[in-house]
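pasting for ref
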Amino acid sequence: MPTTSATTTIRSRYAEQAISDLAENRRRQKELTRQLEALHQEESLLLNILKLAGASDADSDAAPDQPPVPQQAQNEAEVSAPVTPATSPDAAEAPTGRPRDAGASPDTRQRKTRAGRTGAGRTGAKGADKQEERPVLLQDLLLELLAAHSEPRLAAELREELLRAHPDRQPTPQVVRNTLEALVAKGRIQRHKQNRSVMYTVVESNDT
């Protein structure tokens, strides 16, 4: 009997330890998943910072991490734009020396002209819609928030204001700090150290 009781006690301890280790394992998995997501965001931001560092001043003032939407829209416009009579093969002369649509009625030519204008209008509207869908850059949002204060602000304070003003944007604290440091590198804002805290202010323009 003593042997059976001791064996039961040992098994019970192993089971309790296994349950505790399993819970800790799952907790660490969740924590590592969150850290991995934050690292992916930080990686994207650091790549953008590297692009900024290698760009000229003129390129830095423009949006450095814009997606290649304008080129794509231009290509789509070139493909979908109606062929004008000047460049269309239909405008070539027939073997008799007359244009193929020379015999068309005025109503037919007017319908073709209206169809070409409608196609061009749709292409222009498609390009405008893609430009409107372009998201606002995080650095522009932080600059706007920072410009509203005359006193230096902490990165954590700016992040809290950003979350309140733009609930759809959820950058991590590290991403916010990296973005602010990128703005410091571009000369858009200044860094101030007060004791152990790092604070930021907008650089005042010298333009008169």
